[in-house]
Automatic annotation (TrEMBL):
Residue span, RNA polymerase sigma-70 domain: 81-94
Keyword Transcription regulation: yes
GO BP annotation list: DNA-templated transcription initiation
Protein name according to UniProt: RNA polymerase primary sigma factor
Keyword terms: DNA-binding, Sigma factor, Transcription, Transcription regulation
Pfam families listed in its UniProt record: Sigma70_r1_2, Sigma70_r2, Sigma70_r3, Sigma70_r4
Gene Ontology molecular function, alphabetical: DNA binding; sigma factor activity
Highest taxon of source: Bacteria
Length: 290
């Protein structure tokens, strides 16, 4: 069987070409868990043999990328472009996968596939990345919060975050209420660290159970939707009210910090939720319902 070339940009393919691509990948044999282990070990050795092993591991999972991409259709981005972005994530996962942890490759790869697709959707929706100097503290908080939630299945308190990242409670609380918590998943964690949010999320969840992978995926999807739909103040109120990526706070507490009445905070929260329900991205959240 001829080799299938995977590239980041396949936007010039016609509908006929897409159908042919789907037919081609449907003919690629699946691989066993034992073969996954062997391929991962070979990939780490590098060289031409490693490259061939990587290609085989990627090709065997192309069907899965298509199934994920189809979940994100009808948002203005052609399906074939969503598949292309997902393939980029799959290739990245093949480079980073460590079979010694005992988990299936696709349980790890789903992170990179989804993040690549969601970033494309976010870019299309007009999300604007903030300067690094403004996102350093909030990204440290989010990084610590994601890791804490993954381990404890609950949001950390401000005191716990303070201990984890060695930052004063007052600064943490100020950052939580002032930041929108929607930095790009490709934004650096800090000014002097090239590690991105996507890297940190995948690192924290790559060897988690399927349940935890789904939980973290939901959190990531929620943050992207909030960033694309809500204003900064609406986002700040919604994320604090529901404890999304930060300690949960009551309406009175939020109002006191922002100089608003309890009723005004409630009104802004409800307005934000209504905007989410009516947005063309609400389908992303509906996938996690039930």
């Amino acid at each position: 069987m001829r080799q299938i070339k995977i590239s980041k940009s396949i936007t010039t393919r016609t509908e006929e070409s897409l159908n042919k691509y789907l037919t081609d990948i449907s003919r690629i044999p699946m691989i066993t868990p034992e073969q996954e282990v062997e391929l991962a070990q070979t990939i780490r050795k590098g060289g031409r043999t490693g490259a061939k092993a990587k290609e085989k591991l990627v090709n065997a999972n192309l069907r899965f990328v298509v199934s994920v991409a189809k979940q994100y259709q009808h948002q203005g981005i052609p399906l074939i472009d969503l598949i292309s972005e997902g393939n980029v994530g799959l290739i990245t996962a093949a480079d980073k996968f460590d079979e010694t942890r005992g988990f299936k490759f696709i349980s790890y790869a789903i992170w990179w596939i989804r993040q690549s697709i969601l970033q494309a959707i976010a870019d299309y929706s007009g999300m604007v990345r903030r300067p690094q100097s403004q996102i350093a503290i909030s990204n440290k908080i989010k990084n610590a919060t994601n890791a804490f939630m993954l381990k404890n299945q609950r949001n950390p308190s401000a005191e716990e975050l303070s201990e984890i990242i060695s930052l004063e409670i007052e600064k943490i609380e100020k950052a939580i209420q002032s930041e929108a918590h929607v930095a790009s998943i490709d934004a650096p964690i800090s000014d002097d660290d090239t590690t991105t949010m996507a890297d940190s999320i995948a690192s924290a969840a790559e060897y988690a159970s399927d349940r935890k992978v789904d939980y973290e995926s939901m959190c990531s999807d929620v943050m992207l939707v909030l960033g694309a739909v809500l204003s900064e103040r609406e986002r700040a109120i919604v994320v604090q009210s529901f404890g999304i990526g930060c300690p949960e706070r009551g309406l009175d507490d939020i109002g006191s910090t922002m100089g608003l009445s309890r009723e005004r905070v409630r009104q802004i929260r409800e307005r934000g939720l209504d905007k989410i329900r009516k947005s063309n991205m609400s389908y992303i959240l509906l996938r996690h319902a039930g």
